[in-house]
Amino acid sequence: MIRNMYIQNGELVTILGGKLKLRHHPFKSLRFLIFLLILFMGMVPCLILRFVVLRSNESHSVSIRMAEIQNQCTILCNQLSVLDTLSGDIPETIDAEITQFSNIYNGRVMIIDQSYRIIEDSYDLDAGKTIISGDVIKCFEGETVSNYDDRNSYIEVTSPIQGTASKEIVGVMLASVSTDNIVDIQENLRQTLDIIIITVFVVLIAVGVLISFYITRPLNRITKAVENMTESYEEDDLHENAFLETIRFSEAFNKMIGRFKVLDESRQEFVSNVSHELKTPLTSMKVLADSLLSQEEVPAELYREFMGDMSEEIERENKIINDLLSLVKMDKTSNDMNIEMLDINLIVERILKRLKPIAQKQNIELVFETFRTVEAEVDETKLSLAVSNLVENAIKYNHENGWVHVSLNADHKFFYLKVADSGMGIPKEAQEHIFERFYRVDKSHSREIGGTGLGLAIARSAVIMHRGAIKVYSEEGEGTTFTVRIPLKYVANAK
């Protein structure tokens, strides 16, 4: 099997066995996007919660430990305050408590006198040395300072020692306590949260896959149904009621298919009518020609009679073809309007003058009534076709000694043309079809007078191309009235 591949618009196209198959990028898949959205909406809150819990637990643990250390420092400072001065050695009882404090909290305690000299160090490393730091200076000014160094994992607290008698600050206690146990607790909590998040991630993957399949399954069924319908309109209507959106889509799709069916039926009927209308004159001419060929020594008068009949059939065929060409030309040049500001009164008068001889043959009174001078932006050729067909139909489908009244009026936005006649009228059930191509109310009468069934279709197309509207009012046996409304100002691409 031959397989060719190439890139088109950033997508891989495969030609397999002569069939074109487009491979879409997976990131364009609705199922994949739904899956990612579920994963994102589930993981982001989990990650935020993990960060908040870790930070909150660390802050809470540190604040509790810092409060404990501050309390212990305050107790020791109160015991040292009775000395009033730190010039001598620290009593053994207080020294023991300092050592015990250092062991319990795994920290280091230093006692600093007013000259910033370390007189006591629980680690026995810096006794006798001088220490000057911002926290110690602040503490000598009466401010208790507490700091947490998360990078090195320790808490540092400075607490002032006040003399009992003088109430002056005679020294400072500096305590540095390790927070390794808090770090261990944080690490254990972090591992627990990570396990929970990984579990949630796995669950979200499963849930995301299931939900994305569940949501897109109706769309897949719709796609399959549409693919089946492309073969034929005879398939059942689409009914997908999984979601409100799919219900609306099904309804809209069924309406569209209904329109396609109507258009397809109209196309088939149009082709059938065209074939029939073009075939009928040809059949008549063939019958006449065969009749002449089958006879010997045919009189000249019969030849002339048959040739006259054949000429009429040729003329009829020519009229059908001309009307068809007019319709086709309108369809192809619907966006190619030759718009000019023209005198509508003058256009209508010219048309009535040309059709007046036809009306006189049937002794039909042709009257034109105008209420004002009307100027509008129109395509003269197309508007003339519409008016000519309406007036000519009113004359042809009329009674002898009847009348045709044409009136023209306008307001600030539209001009109105009305063509009324005293003819045979149109049945109610036929009025919605009269603008269809080749539709005839009375087929036998239409053929007798040479009608093609295309006149009203041409008129309607011309009016619509001017962004106008055409309506019919008729009672069978009481005549027919056509009303046309067209804007004075032509608006291109109007909807």
From TrEMBL:
Enzyme Commission numbers on file: 2.7.13.3
InterPro entries in UniProt: BphY/WalK/GraS-like, HATPase_C_sf, HATPase_dom, His_kinase_dom, HisK_dim/P_dom, HisK_dim/P_sf, Sig_transdc_His_kin-like_C
Broad EC category: transferase
GO biological process annotation, one example: cellular response to phosphate starvation
Alphabetized Pfam families for the sequence: HATPase_c, HisKA
Record field: catalytic activity: ATP + protein L-histidine = ADP + protein N-phospho-L-histidine
Domain Histidine kinase: start-end pairs: 273-490
Keywords: Kinase, Membrane, Phosphoprotein, Transferase, Transmembrane, Transmembrane helix, Two-component regulatory system
Domain of life assignment: Bacteria
Intracellular or extracellular location(s): Membrane
Regions annotated as coiled coil: none
Gene Ontology MF, one: phosphorelay sensor kinase activity
TM stretches of this protein: 32-53, 195-215
GO cellular component: plasma membrane
Name of the molecule in the record: histidine kinase
Source species taxonomy: Bacteria, Bacillati, Bacillota, Clostridia, Lachnospirales
